[in-house]
Amino acid sequence: MTKNKLESDKKWVLKALAKKENQIYSSGQLGQQELKGGLVPSTTINKELIANFFAYKKSDLAEISIDQRFSVLIDGLKNSTIESIKFHCGTPKTGSSSLQSTLYKMKDQLNGMSILYPDAIKNDTEPKHQKLVTAMKNDDFEALVTYLGEVIEQARLNQSKHVIISTEGIFNHWQDFSLAIKTVFRAISQQVLVQFILVLRDPVEFLYSMYLQNLKNVQRSHPVCYGQDWSFETMLEDPWFINHLDYLGFILSSEALIGKGQVELFLYNRNIVSDVIEHLGMKISEEAVLTKNVTSKKVIISDLRRLNRRNLTAIAKAEAMAELKATKSNQRKEGPSQMASQNINQLFCIQKQVLQDYYGFSFD
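The structure assignment produced for this chain is given below.
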């Protein structure tokens, strides 16, 4: 398949989806409409998700200018030693904490390869670059420029040619960032090579794992789905939650900012940390991987939902969950219903086909 044919076919997929848009949502519901790859089930899962395909198509990101507030950052990069920056973007629940802890532990070895894993992290126990996400969520250009300026200065002092920034919050909150602040990635990419590392997980496993995490989180005004007494099926109706399944929308909008082919896709598996480390040009044994967020005992869903009815503070909820883990012994295996799994897979069929045909990515 030629490059021109590839691009033509990709545009055809988006146009075909656009033609179906009004039909699919004629009643505010997803109808039994046949799309390429299968049927979309009659359910409110999810008007927002497919709409994101059209958001990319309708807003020509290629013509959006870089915000002028990033001019200082551009000047700093011009005078730096940096040749490339890789942003590990997530997704959540795909070994991000283990990868971050391992990279942090290996930072001296990385420095020897002229690769910087910046010190500007959340803390030593959570060595991710969360400040970047916080600044972007708050639309705080000054804080973002200051933070990245610190990274550039550390690279200069270390004479580093390459930088790795890791926070799954980039993917997790992509829909919360303004387009203006997202242009920071385009600003950087005009001076150095920018690549996104994105780890994708089977859609049903991913959403169910996200569901469990959201039950564990403390209630907030946003995202509304945190800390609720909700079933999995109910959470699938939450726009912010279900939009996390829009893998393709993230890839397309990222490519529009940093360039086609600059989003590197990895399939989540038990060896994902070593897979990414080896991609960076290093060898690591499984024994050297720092495993995080793995526990032998898990709180069952019904207990979590009961806790959420009390709207506990973060400290009180952590204490209550620790007590539950200590007292529960025989716990049944829990998972999504067959109907929920079927709906998710049918909804994902278009993305699955495009990811396989045009990005060479398969979940098999």
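Interim note for the steering committee: The chain has two domains: 3-58, 67-294+333-359. Confidence is low (pLDDT under 50) at residues 17-46.
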